[in-house]
Design goal:
The complex is a heterodimer of chains A (320) and B (285). By secondary structure, chain A is mainly α. Chain A folds into two domains: 1-45, no CATH class; 89-319, MetI-like fold, CATH 1.10.3720.10. Chain A has helices spanning 7-10, 33-63, 80-87, 89-120, 127-139, 142-152, 159-166, 181-206, 210-218, 223-251, 255-260, 272-282, 286-319, and strands spanning 65-67, 74-76. Chain A has a two-stranded antiparallel sheet. In chain A, helix 6 (142-152) crosses helix 8 (181-206). Chain B has 15 helices and no strands. Chain B is mostly helical and 285 residues long. Chain B is flat, with a radius of gyration of 24 Å. In chain B, helix 1 (8-35) packs across helix 14, helix 4 runs antiparallel to helix 11 (200-216) and helix 13 packs antiparallel against helix 14. Chain B has helices at residues 8-35, 39-43, 57-64, 67-98, 104-113, 123-138, 148-152, 159-170, 174-183, 187-198, 200-216, 219-224, 233-243, 249-278, 280-283. In chain B, 40% of the residues are buried.
Chain lengths: 320, 285
Amino acid sequence: MAVNNNPTEWNPQPIGKEFVRPKGSFGGILGKEWVLFLLLVLPNFIFLATFTYWPLIRNFVLSTQKVNPYTKAQSYAGLDNFRWLFNDRVFKQVVSNTAIFIVCCVFFTLGLGLLVALLLNEKLKGRTAVRAMVFAPYLIAGSAVALVWSYIFNPRFGLFAMILGWFDISSPRWLEDPNWALAAVIITYVWKNMGFAAVVFLAGLQGIPKDLYEAAKLDGASAWWRFRSVTLPMLSPISFFLVVTSVLSTFQAFDLIDVMTSGGPVNSTTTLVYYVYEQGWMAQRWERAAAAAVVLFILMLTVTGMQMLWERRQVHYDGN
Amino acid sequence: METSKLTPAKFGGYAAMVFVGLVIGIPIFWMLSGSLMSNRDILNPNQWLPSTPVWDNYPDAWNSLPFARFFLNSLIITFFGAGAKVVLGVLCAYAFAFLKFPGKNILFLVVLASLMVPSQVVIIPNYQFMATTIRNILGTEDNWVDTYQGIILPSAATAFGTFLMRQGFMGLPKDVLDAAKVDGAGHFRTMWQIILPMAKPIVVTFALIAVVGEWNEYLWPLIITNTDNMRPVTVGLRLLNDTEGNNNWGIIMAGTAFVVVPMLVVYTFLQRFIIDGLTAGATKG
């Protein structure tokens, strides 16, 4: 152990100086700030390295391997797995499912969330209770929400079948019909997550200075024009934040799909994350699953990158 | 106090609020009502309420799978998983906020960059780690598949928590910290007796986010467990769907209800705290 030569740190009570050796702290090596720093950050770093950074590299490596399904022998195969993916008909459908799922979920979650926020921004009695209600599904475990909605979507005796029955419309077979299953999962997703967007939008609305509206009113702006020229621009930072975080979390959606449809029927609800799971844990083609995970990673990284670029531009504009 | 008149606009507003309430409330009602229905009631498409409540659905659901064990597992996973996140996050945040270290900013970026790696991207290597690598590291026959440490450890670290709490710590008034230093308080005492009490709101907020996240986690526990003994509630519910077949909805809804209802009860008492906490990352960012 290195000998500490710093007299101020060794001297227990330099009376009359403002520097006092901290009581209860360790002397010697532990008293050094950099050692303490390392000790405090180390646990977090060890776990991040072991379960985030290292597996990220291992996943890249695995995606370039050819694995013999019987002997499990591995050899380098370059981009073969990616070529296989992009030639696979199912994978093409998976990419398009993922795109549709993300666009629809984000559009309806944020659109309806904004409408609810505008409603709750009015001074109406009982709006706190409605706010609490709308937010509740966001807290409920995804598998529970999925079971409730599987029952609701039952084509013979579910809630939707009943409502459609009032108008003499026969219910689609929702979760069993490749044309409807994805829509059913999207509806469920929007129901579960709309409240989060509503609460965040509402906080944004309440942060808009009232005098902006007064000024617009004095200028004779109509309600619609006030919405367009004051509300929307003032909400744009928070909307952008919500779009990015919602896109990233819909990319990761898994529990609703697994419980409601298990990716089916005929792959109609298989998204990228679900495909990774299927190729790995069902088909045992780990190298293909790893390649699909790389595609997922790159797509999500692109979204984050776009967010960073956009935010830098924002800061620049604010600076002017 | 002025008595506000019910203008048409206000009436429209209330009507819209009722509609929103119904959209959120009816599926919950449908679950509760279904949980008390006999199979005959379920199959009748126009039935809103059970003709006679079948309370047996609840014990039947509870006994069809080891739900007590599922809840115990969820509690253990949530307690230790969220606990690890809070402890590691507080320690790391304190170091980044108050201690000097060469290259500290670069190290902080290394922590933050991990936010760009979603857990779904690394599930395959992490599964392999738990299934085989850990055997070589420990030199044992047993691996960590289907164990609590296997479920908890991959998400024990926290970049978000480090970021959030470092921000909170750095926003504390500086003179109090200086006073502590002059008082001769060591770092651990400063952390425990000054920083944590003062930064309690942000630490509690992060703890809430961590608890909700761990409790609702689905994909990783599904992959890493393979016996009923180790499943948390979220994964156990899915098994209920499998064991009860597709049409025994009374029992499936009863099982779903005893997962959902306790949570909603907690939520009614803590709703303001929970809403503010879970949206803190978005509204105060």
